[in-house]
Amino acid sequence: MPQHVAIIMDGNGRWAQQRNKHRTFGHKAGVEAVRASVRFARSQGIKSLTLFAFSSENWQRPKEEVSVLMDLFGMVLKSEVKKLHKNDIRLNVIGDISGFDEKLQHKISDAELLTRDNKALTLNIAANYGGRWDIVNAAKALTRDVLAGKMDISEITEQSLDTNISTHGLPELDLLIRTGGDHRVSNFLLWQCAYAEFYFTETLWPDFSEQTFAAAVEDFSLRQRRFGLTGEQIMTQDVEHKAC
Ligand code: IPE
Ligand code: IPE
Ligand code: MG
Questions:
Q1: How many CB atoms lie within 10 A of CB 18?
Q2: CB of 128 sitting under 6 A from ligand 2
Q3: SS3 211
Q4: Which of 51, 101, 143, 219 is deepest in the core (most CB within 10 A)?
Q5: Are 4 and 173 a contacting pair, CB within 8 Å?
Q6: Rounded to whole angstroms, how far apart are CA atoms 7 and 227?
Q7: Alpha helices, DSSP H only, in the chain?
Q8: What pTM did the predictor assign?
């Protein structure tokens, strides 16, 4: 079972267009798929679920669509946070929060504060998020420490940079799912993807269900993750591990 799963929730617009509806109809329909994926992750003991809700590039979409997405984010936060809390789920928003209006920023920090001690699942919502932004942000934090004399350049390592990455403290990313049929990362968790397994499905996000999620996890469980080693080395490790 993967410990940390991330999902690029893509295909809302096309789902709506197939029904001769406005793209925003697809975003609204996608909320139910978010609920289903959280339910599934919680029930399967996945420790961390990171959902790509709005990228740093999505601001360039038509103004009306951006505005519906912002309203929807605020509404869903408000309507779901108690249920998340009751289910022992910690809500965490990753991304450049300062880009949102103040009301939404408050809703985000209230939800994070309420749920911060919850342990069953960490639900990360990536909003105004970009993988390059995440790395630049971490680089800036380290630079500040070096300039303040708290750190030497030789202490800039993968570990110290990772300490300043938005998902720090969570398990390593095991599985990245993208719905909607495209095979790209679209500036999502670039740093975290180093050894993640990728799963692409044609399913459009509003049609994503616990069954689709289960199929992705099943596929993941059949893969051999080698982390640069040979297949034989991994097999021997497995045998040794089982013998212990
Ligand atoms: C993903 O669906 C949701 C967001 C990017 C906010 P899209 O809106 O990208 O849907 P398609 O890819 O155009 O079908
Ligand atoms: C990625 O989807 C962002 C989210 C799912 C929030 P996009 O629809 O923005 O990605 P591209 O433009 O097809 O690469
Ligand atoms: Mg898209």
A1: 11
A2: no
A3: helix
A4: 51
A5: yes
A6: 22
A7: 12-18, 23-44, 63-86, 102-115, 131-147, 158-163, 210-221, 231-243
A8: 0.97
Q: What is the residue-averaged pLDDT of the chain?
A: 97
* pLDDT beyond 90 at 240: no
Average pLDDT estimate for 66-94? 98
Q: What is the mean pLDDT of residues 72-85?
A: 97
DSSP classification of residue 87: T
Known catalytic residue: 10?
yes
What is the Cβ-side half-sphere exposure of residue 159, based on CA atoms within 13 angstroms?
A: 2
pLDDT in tens, 140-185: 999 999 999 999 999 999 999 999 999 999 999 999 999 999 999 9
Q: Is any ligand 2 atom within 6 A of the Cβ of residue 184?
A: yes
Q: Which ligand is nearest to the CA of 12?
A: 1
CA gap 108, 91 in Å, rounded? 9
Residue with tokens 């599934």: 40
Ligand nearest to the CA of 184: 2
* pLDDT interval class at 36 (50, 70, 90): very high
Tokens of 116: 């911060």
For domain 4-243, give the fold.
Undecaprenyl pyrophosphate synthetase (3.40.1180)
Task: Determine contact, residues 11/206, Cβ cutoff 8 Å.
Answer: yes
pLDDT score of 242 = 75
Q: What is the bridge-based pairing of β-strands 4-8 and 175-178?
A: parallel
